[in-house]
Design goal:
The protein is built from 9 helices and 12 strands. By secondary structure, the chain is an alpha/beta fold. It has a domain of 206 residues: Rossmann fold, CATH 3.40.50. Strands 2-1-3-4-5-10 form a 6-stranded parallel β-sheet, sandwiched between helices. The chain has a two-stranded parallel sheet with strand order 6-9. A two-stranded parallel ribbon has the order 7-12. Strand 1, helix 1 and strand 2 form a beta-alpha-beta unit. Keywords: NADP, Oxidoreductase.
């Protein structure tokens, strides 16, 4: 299977290259300057030249807070850019897997969100990603949108790396405890993408297309996540800190975060046979790789 993925350095892209190559698939990562989501013409040219069996739309504008002041750019990349990828996939006649986010919800439900729950983004990032979802589903009927959340990995910048860095010179950290979600390894996400891609290539059933939630099993707050990171680090001789539980009100940000980011992943398990590992298991795997850098 030849997979073309948009982007070159993101967590999901890097994980997909690693996992796909290990599974004997060819993964071609395409990013700037050859492919620029803000330049739809470049998207078509680059994806056509890659001659893929399936396209994964992973590149995005992900600066959640900065998006509040860069509205036009966020929509150009996450909305118009996603539409351009869908147009290219349709022209090539190949399946498209588009990566989206928990930020399409406002976080007010008292249970994990299912795919049919009403969307209600609270900020520009979520609104632009929702625009991208609509553009993909309307532009190419051979598409699957995978909503992921709280992504971390051995690659790039993420919460795990930030916590380890801060613990290097602080004994205590205040971490938000009233936002709950499913911390999800990008490596596990890559495994799920490969499974979904294979299913879509071998079966043209409409049930395999549409919107799916795909996060790790288990849930926790950011404070819970931080405590697990520090426990895992300490067990490996790395930096650790005590966690002071604080509220969202104590850590104001330009963009409003959902209080409840939990996603119900029953549908993708039933339809695609994808069940990601518990986040604490995946965290251990990531920590095994990060630990030499954290000493």
């Amino acid at each position: 299977m030849k997979i073309a993925v948009t982007g070159k350095v993101g967590q999901v892209v890097t994980s997909l290259i690693e996992r796909g190559t290990a599974a004997d698939h060819e993964v071609v990562a395409i990013g700037r300057p050859d492919l620029d989501l803000a330049d739809p013409a470049s998207v078509m040219r680059a994806l056509q030249a890659s001659t893929p069996d399936v396209i994964v739309s992973a590149a995005a504008y992900t600066a959640v807070d900065k998006a509040e002041s860069e509205n036009a750019l966020a929509y150009a990349v996450n909305g118009t850019g996603a539409a351009a990828v869908a147009k290219a996939a349709q022209a090539l006649g190949v399946p498209l897997i588009h990566i989206s986010t928990d930020y399409v919800f406002d976080g007010t439900l008292d249970r994990p969100y299912v795919e049919s729950d009403p969307t209600a983004p609270t900020g520009v990032y979520g609104l632009s990603k929702l625009a991208g979802e609509h553009a993909v589903l309307e532009g190419h009927d051979n598409s699957a949108v995978l909503r992921v959340a709280w992504v971390y990995s051995p690659f790039g910048g993420n919460f795990v790396k930030t916590m380890l860095r801060l613990a290097g010179d602080r004994d205590e950290l205040g971490v938000v405890s009233d936002q709950v979600g499913n911390p999800t390894s990008a490596l596990a996400i890559a495994d799920g993408i490969i499974k979904v891609a294979g299913n879509m290539l071998s079966d043209d059933s409409p049930d395999l297309r549409g919107v799916f939630h795909m996060t790790a099993r288990g849930e926790g707050s950011w404070a819970d996540f931080a405590e697990a990171i520090f426990a895992a680090s300490a067990a490996r001789g790395g930096p650790s800190a005590s966690v002071r539980h604080i509220g969202t009100v104590d850590y104001p940000t330009p963009a409003t975060r959902p209080a409840n980011s939990r996603l119900d992943c029953s549908l993708i398990a039933q339809v695609h046979g994808v069940i990601l590992p518990d986040w604490r298991i995946s965290l251990d795997d990531v920590m095994d790789r990060l630990q030499p850098a954290s000493r």
